[in-house]
Amino acid sequence: RRFLSVVQLNPFPAELVKTLLNEPSSVKVDEVVRYEAGYVVCAVIAGLYLLVVPIAGLCFCCCRCRRRCGGRVKTEHKALACERGTLMAFLLLTTLVLLTGVVCAFVTNQHMHEQVDPSVEAVPEILLSLRGLVSDVPQELQAVAQQFSLPQKRVLEDLDGVGMSIGSTIHTRLRSTVYEVLASVSNLGQALQVSVDHLQALNSTLVELRKGQQDLEPAVREHRERLLALLQEPGCQGCTEAQSRAGALELGADFQKVSPVDDVLHRLRGVPEANFSSMVQEENSTFNALPILAALQTASVVKELKKVVAQRPEGLTTLAEEFPGWEAASRWSRALEEVEERSRPYLKEVQRYEKYRWILGCVLCSAVLLVVVCNLLGLNLGIWGLSAREDPSHSEAKGEAGARFLLIGAGFSFLFAAPLILLVFATFLVGGNVQTLVCQSWESKELYKFADTPGNLPPSMNLSQLLGLKKNISILLAYQQCREGAALWSVLQLNDSYDLEEHLNISQYTAKLQQELQNLKVDMKNLDLLSPAAHRDLEALQSSGIEKIHYSSFLVQIQKPVVNTNMEKLAQELEELARTQGSSVLGQQLQEEAQGLRNLYQERVLPQQSLVVSLEAQEQGSESSLSPFAQVETSGVLDKVTYLKGELPTWATSILRNESECFLTREVGYFSQYVAWVREEVTQRIATCQPLSAALDNGRVVLCDMMADPWNAFWFCLAWCTFFLIPSIIFAVKTSKYFHPIWKRLSSTSSEETQLFHIPRVTSLKL
């Protein structure tokens, strides 16, 4: 790359490329030559090389035929060893440089060959990715528009349960009020039933007690009078205390003084007419069935709502069709597909010619390697021959062989110099221009800047016009935005070319939905809360005067004993008196009276006492079954029932409106969320142009990194070897002279020189 930067000092030829793209016929040759001045100089050098080296080779061959070139040293002198060593060192160094170069040439040639197949295969993939980008944009827009079915589906699912939901909400909101009223009605009905039962039982017991009192009073009075007569007789002994007890033998409780309940029972006759428990249970069932009732009543409206929801807004229908570049996308997709199909045969030809280039490169590299081998063999054999020359019995064959290998290497160098320089220059011209004209400007973004400059590209290559945009876009800025993952909306600046909000306007759609929701109605006329019979029962209770019953009069009489005297104790006392009497007749009479008292107690007093106990329980039950404020409570329940029957429809309608508005807000929220998602997808995520920047980067990698770099590395290494063949030829020819036998040796009388150069006898010298 540094060498190419020296060869090509000119900047990117924007004017020349502009002329070439817009008016190819007006391109001037002198401008091309001026820009390619460095390559022209290299072409001159290559031409001189191609001319001089083969001519020199021919001359060398002619000289060799006449034994004038590549001869032998005629006279041995003092500097012979130094000259020979220097030439051998330079030849060895040159050979090592050649060896390094040819190894690098082999490696880069093979690397270039290995990179061709992946590079060729990458081209259809890059075109396919571009075609996918172009063809995916309409498909993604259609997919986004089709996603409207998701909020539609959600709204349709909500509509399936909207009636039940509204009914449940009405039920929940009114539940506490309705349950409270129904509970009051139920409690009042139960209290009414219990009170009527207790009053009836109380009245029945009171009647029995009064009847028993009427029967018991004469019997008690008769027993008292007889006992007093017996105990007052003069012969009765110790009868004073018993006489006082017998005098107290009279009725205690007088149930004639108890407040009557006949009037209340008369007013409550036939009450309760209604079965309050069954009625409340039925009203509860009716109220609890309100969600189902609401679902049935709103079914027809829900059906119409579903028809409205099933429609699709017109703007979403044309979202993809009216998107900028919709028609251009199909044209570009077809064009890229056609380019892909047409490129395949050419790519196969590239692979085939690359195979020929690889074979030629291998052959020429092998030729250079052959020169290196000849040089190394010549040096080794020559050095071996020199080391054996001191032996009187040595043979000069090794030195001769070494010299011949060196000359053979020089001959190969002359022979392959022409094809080498031709291959080097051809590959250099192509690879160098690709690197300097395309790759460097591509990497430095000069190509994008050139494309962004107005007038540089012909109208047929104007990207904005091809996409149908209203304003020009910067290719460099678009490329940078694409690398960052931006969407086509921001890259192509589609705000001015496409009114997205118009397509996302669903106000008319939601207005129809709102209009249909206003038709929702829930009728609660089936909820009576109180049946007519129950209403009459409560009105009868209200006017019965049950709260005026004086239960205190019951308590006064109940707390009194049936009989003031303990009859059993009196009977026992009479029996004891009967045993202590001196008169058997009086004792017998007292005994009979005691037994009579016991019988009266068992037959009359005990049943009366049992009735009193029952009366007490019934009085307590009757008094506790209804509060003293029963009339007020009954009036309150009746007023509340009347009020609720008038207000429940109004409350239900208000709740229905609120729920309808909440439902509409929620459902419109689904559509608004979808619209926001579409807006974000179209403007930020959908149709990301990152594949475009990736395709451009991949194209640069394929062309520059995978193809141009190894290509340039190959010709550079091969040129290295080619130009080092010249010093290799020179040093090989020069060095070969010293490996031939010397014609004359230097004689010296100096003992030192004699020691340094041993001169054998003449008879042993081989010329």
From TrEMBL:
Subcellular location: Cell projection, Microvillus membrane
Gene Ontology MF term list: cholesterol binding
Transmembrane regions listed in the UniProt entry: 37-65, 86-108, 358-384, 405-430, 713-733
Membrane topology recorded in Swiss-Prot or TrEMBL: Multi-pass membrane protein
The keyword Transcription regulation is assigned to this record: no
A biological-process GO annotation: positive regulation of cell projection organization
A cellular component annotation (GO) from this entry: apical plasma membrane
Pfam family, one: Prominin
Keyword terms of this UniProt record: Glycoprotein, Membrane, Transmembrane, Transmembrane helix
Primary subcellular site in the record, as a coarse category: membrane
The family this protein is said to belong to: Belongs to the prominin family.
PANTHER family, alphabetized: PROMININ PROM PROTEIN (PTHR22730), PROMININ-2 (PTHR22730:SF6)
Protein name, entry field: Prominin 2
Lineage: Eukaryota, Metazoa, Chordata, Craniata, Vertebrata
Gene this protein is translated from: PROM2
